[in-house]
Design goal:
The protein is α+β, with helices and mostly antiparallel strands and 664 residues long. The chain is built from 16 helices and 26 strands.
Length: 664
Amino acid sequence: MSAPVNAATANKMHNPNFILRMPAEHGKTGVVSYEERPIPEIGPMDVLVEVKKTGVCGSDVHYWQHGAIGPFAVSLCPNGMCLGHESSGIVVKVGSDEKVKVKPGQRVAMEPGFGCGVCSDCKSGRYELCEFMTFAATPPFEGGTLCRYFKLPADFVHPIADSLTLEEGAMMEPLSVAVHAAAKIGQIKVNENVIVFGCGPVGLLLIATAKALGARRIIAVDINQERLTFAKRYANTESFQPPSKNENESQDEYMARTVKELHNTLGVESRGINGIDLVLEASGAQPCITMGLHFLKPAGRFVQVGMGRPDIQIPVGAMMSKEIQYRTSFRYGPGTYALAIDLVSQGKIDLKALHTHSFAYNDALSAFEATKAGKGKDGKSLIKAVIDGPEELQFGSSTRRLFLDEPDAESLRKIKAASERAAVAKGATGEAEVRVGLDEMNFGKLSPYVKPSGSILGLRASDLKPSMLFSRGFKPKEFFKWLQWNLYTSLQDYHHRMLLFQKGEWQTEKEGIPGLKWIERRKASNQWASTVALDKYTQLQKAITSGDLKTINKLAIHTLKDNSDSQAKTVKINREKKYDWKLLKINETPSVMSVRTTNVMPMLPESAEKRICQVVVKFNTEQTLGPDHQSQNIVDYVMFEKPLWMRNGDWKMRDKVYETPYFQ
C-alpha cells in the first residue's frame, strides 16, 4: 500500500494528526491521511503534551482493517479518528490550577483514557468502567495520540525517570494492561504457579509482570514455536505447545489428553503446590480459554485479558465443581501506571527487548502494515513497533530579552586545557581547533541537540553536532559576557523592526532603529551579507505599504528554497495589517546548539577572543502570534553571525524564513 499523499508534508504541520476514515463500502480497509488539526486549548487542570513516541497496538490495526471493535465504530467519528494511544512525550504547557504538579519540560508517560470523574464508577475508584470514558483512538472520541500535541488531565500524565527512554514511556500503556490484569484482577501472590496463553506483546508483558511480582513458575502457552522460544529467552519461562486435535476426537477427550500431556511434560499436578493457581489468557481464542479453565487446580483463578469473539463458550459445569473464579480485565485503573513505571524503573521488567522496530512519523502506515504482518521490511519478527513523534517545527525567531547562563569554573578550566593541548599539537602558527562535547560542560542548562535531517539556515545537519568548536586563544568568560549583550541587542533590534513594520514606518529611521533606506544603503556596500529572507522582508514591506495586492498575492504563494532540502515554505499575509506579537513566557533556558570558530584570514584585525563567527541558539518560548492573538509554544533556532569582513566586530542576526510566525 502506498503512503498517504500528504506524508511528505506531515512534519511541516503545526499539529498533524494521523487520521483514519472508513470507506462507505463495507469490508474495505480504512484510508489514512495526515491532517492539520487545531492545537487543543487546555483548562486549569489540564496539560498539553508534545507527543514523542507512540506504540502501535493491535486495536489500532483492527480499527484500520475493520473499522470497529464491538460497538466502537469509526463511523461514529464524522471527522475521522486520529489513531494511537500508547504514547509518551514532553509537557509543553500546564493549567493554571495550583494542584497541577507537573512542569513544562517533564518527560511523561501518557495515560490515554479518563473518566468523567462524577459518576458512581469514577467515585468508587473504577474510572476504567466509566460510562462516559474518553479514550484516545476509541470512537466516538475523534482524538488520538499520533499527533504533535495532545491534551489530557494533569493527573493522567506520569513523569518518568531520566533513566527511562521515551520508547519505554510509550510502552507503559500496554504494560499497565498487564499489571492491572495480573496484580489487581488476578491478585497474583508470591510463589504461585501461573500459565499465560498467547505470547504476543500483551502476553509477554503478562509474563514479565508475573515474574516481577514473584510467581514461582510461569508457563507460556502458544501454538507458535518461534514465539515460545522468544518468551523463554525473554523471561526464562517454561513453555507448552498444545497438541493438535485428532480427527473424530470429542472436545472432552481432547481436553483430557491435553491436560495429561501438560502434567507429564512439565510435572504440573491437578492439586497442591504444583498445581496451576492463575491463568492469564491473552489470546482471546476459544480453545485457549477452554484449555486454561481445565488446567486450573480447584479454587484457581482465570483472568480473561485478550478480546475474543462475542460468542465464546465456557465450561460452566467444570468450573462450578472446582469453584473456579472467572474474571475479566479491561484496560487499567488508579495506581496501575505508577506501579508499572516503578517495576520498570527498578529493573524488574525489561521493555527494551520488546521494542523491535522503529518508524518515522511520516511513515506511520508502514508501522501498521508491519504490525499486521508480524514482521518488518528487514524480515525480522515484529513484537512492538514504535512511531516517532513529528519532527520539531522550526519557526522564525521573535523574542526579546533572553540571556545565557555563564559557564562555571570547572567548565572554563576544561576549555582552557583543551585549547592549550590543541595549540601544542598544531604548533603556535598553525590552525588549532578542538571539539569539546557539551555533555562534558556545565553551561547552566545548555543541552546538546542533533537535528536528524534538513538544515538550519544553510547549516548542514553535519554541522549541528552536540559539540562546541573553540579556537586557540579563545577566552570563554569574556565571550559569554559579550555574547549575552549581543543576543539582547540583536533580538531587541529585530523586534523593534517588526513594530516599525506594523506601524508602516519601515522606510524611516525611528527610535534609533535603522529603516529600510538604511538597509538598502548598507546592502550596496561590501559589508552587507544579503539573505533571501531579508529580500522578501523588504519586498513585503513595500507591497503592503503601497497596497500592491498583486505583489502581496505573489508573495503569499511564493516558495523559498532552502539550500539543503529545497522544500517549499508558504508565506501567508494578512491583508488588514493587524499584526501582533508578545513574549508570554520562557519555557526553558536558551541552549547553544552550535558554536563555530575560525582562524582563517589572519590579515584581518580580529582579536583572539572574537574568533567565533557563528552561534546557533535554541529558544523555547510561549508567544502570541498573528491577528487572532493565539498563544503558541514556539521552538526557535536563531543564528547569530559575525561576518569576517565586518571590522567593527558587530554581530547581526541572520534573518530566517520558516513557516511564517508573523504573517499568519
